[in-house]
Specification:
Elements: H1 16-24, H2 29-41, H3 45-48, E1 56-58, E2 62-68, E3 77-83, H4 89-96, H5 110-125, H6 135-148, H7 154-161, H8 167-176
Antiparallel strand pairs: 1-2, 2-3
Length: 188
Amino acid sequence: MPSYYRPKNEFEIVTQEKLKLYLNKINDLEFKALLSLAWLTGARISELLEVKKKDFIITSDEIKLLIKTYKQKNHPIRELIFSIKDPFTNFVLDYLQNLDNEQTLFPKCKRTYQHRLQRLNKKIFGENKNEYITFHYLRHSLISYLARELRASAWEIQSWTGHKSSAYEEYIIKTATDRFKGQLGLRR
């Protein structure tokens, strides 16, 4: 592992149960779909804010989401696949029904959604910031799931996440996955 990768702080794994707690407190289908999509795909929030309805390919058993990776040169497109039977997929499908192909799914700016999640954290957990989640935690939950439960290689995780370097993936595979054993729950 390259010695330059050091996580700034430990992140929390967001389980199905914890995400259900958040989704039950939200009345807005748009925000439910965004949180669900972040948890299901592990995409960056900035990537999700660029997604349009035409970027989804829906079949009878899976959903493919084509996402541009803006953090890399030439903006390669990643194909993120998740099962139609995954929990929380119904929020995404219900939200997609009323949109046209050229409309972005989430029209507000990144900061707006981050502030909404911050207010939701306070509503659920009060001032106990140790229990708060972020969009980045949702991303790391999927990465940990891929590493721990599916035994994905560093290259496979890197291609899913769109990271330039595999340093983070190697860190997760070698160090962090044992810490989260059994916390992820059934995802697929």
